[in-house]
């Protein structure tokens, strides 16, 4: 017989239970051991994952698009930042905040919609790479990180370091050129700058995601050692220098397997050999399975509803419960995510939405400085530039120069203060809108050349533009090429009959300066007729002022090309772009038969003469480099030399060290081994040195997983660019040596 419990006892029990529950809910953070900031991030991650339920772990590995999606008939999660790239639920009861993600390669981007964020846009990634200045890249990254924090984001989907194998790639403007050392060092510095603001940066796109045509279905075919000495080496340098908290796997397939379920890339190369401790997220729409992807190393599905299914939603829970994905693997996924959050301050210094605290004038100055550092003077006949007060009548023609400067399209697009200066341009939808930042070169030039008459023509009628050119002392023709994510350009020509315009103007007045705002290299059939050419790239939200500063000589151009400019597409490894024009769902093969001979290496190997070589750029002053010495110091090759400014203006020289084996065989005759950007007053000199990473002296052996340096003589060359006929060189003998994947010596052989 059951004896009824007295009401007083029931009430007491309920009160006791409530008190215990309330005490647990209000438990001070100090009693949660993972909140102890004195502990290593890995230990904190282990402790908090142990305290999580299965469903809490699963929340961390599933990401949503942070914007409404009409095409998928979906609404953003309630907790996400409006019109953002992504959102991942946190675990509030354990003190783990949500992840708020934004595209941010060139600044804090915004998904299109009624309430876009207006932020500071850096110049294009190629422009930053053209500066050859890792300090400037770090400062640019720190600026983005600061704005991101104050917009309420703690994960930035930056930086991109896909090599420029294909000059027609519509996303080249986001990346850092064709050389693994330059690209890796520059992006690594930007990542470090971003993460200095206590947010997570993302290395992408892993790996070999080098064209947009059929990017989600194409299969890249490449030998492992060639990949290790090219695209993977660029990513590895960026990883080592930047230590990103996350890595984004790409859309494409690599040697048959999708990049986001490629165990060799994600488990073997990235996590085991490189020692990556953070988490791997998928690109938006790049997840294709549950069990294969999870077991192959994907830690987080991103951006639902982009994928065809919620692979890491209920299907992953079932897979874990059934043992198809081990519980230990799910724990590893969660541990990697929260470990990076602890490591980079996301938990201890949570973000708040406070855009009013952003110092936009200061950030604009950072963007302007970056643009000025990256502009490349390609031609300057008879000292046509800089513009002087002797030019009384100056014509500015084309390129929307009366309104602003061009930006690239796609997910990296930053919406500027002041809005789009040319909203009438098409397309207005993805990967648009075509954006013209409201920093007009015309207005900036008029402000700096107050004694001159600066007149504008839109360039739509070449005959009318030519008439204005004939009536002018100097002509500035602005030419644009819009490129964007999700598309490649059909060829390397300037679009919309701009070559015809430049031909007409240069024929009317040979004192014509062509200013290029492009997403990559273009052909120049008018080059002989033009008096000067300035490559301005996509110069960011202060681009008009930056261009005017360089044209007028307030700033001495110091950018150097981060890629080769071909004479024509016939010089490329693939004269016809594979798969172009794109056919939906086509499973195409892209054979990287050139292997590691990317860019200038291909031109050297094939003995081709480019339009402009890698590393090339002119200045308003002159430099001399001398005294090259090469020696081994503590087992590392070091090159030292002197740089002199022999001209009459202050300026900056980019000294470049190239390496070439005299007996051994590489993928190409030479490689970039190091670089140093030196700032000098007129008449000044400076001594400097660079240390060579030993991996740049060897070849990767896929069997032993070692970098092997062959015994023999090596030519060390000090040059101003890859085809510098005035370069000096020395020869040094190296003994055979081997290094592990991370460049650590294994032992020398004599």
Automatic annotation (TrEMBL):
One Pfam family recorded for the sequence: Fn3-like
Keyword terms: Hydrolase, Signal
UniProt-listed InterPro entries: Cellulose_deg_GH3, Fn3-like, GH, Glyco_hydro_3_C, Glyco_hydro_3_C_sf, Glyco_hydro_3_N, Glyco_hydro_3_N_sf, Ig-like_fold
Signal peptide: 1-25
Single GO MF annotation: hydrolase activity
Domain Fibronectin type III-like, residue spans: 653-722
Family recorded in the similarity comment: Belongs to the glycosyl hydrolase 3 family.
Name recorded for this polypeptide: Glycosyl hydrolase
Species in which this protein is naturally found: Duganella qianjiadongensis
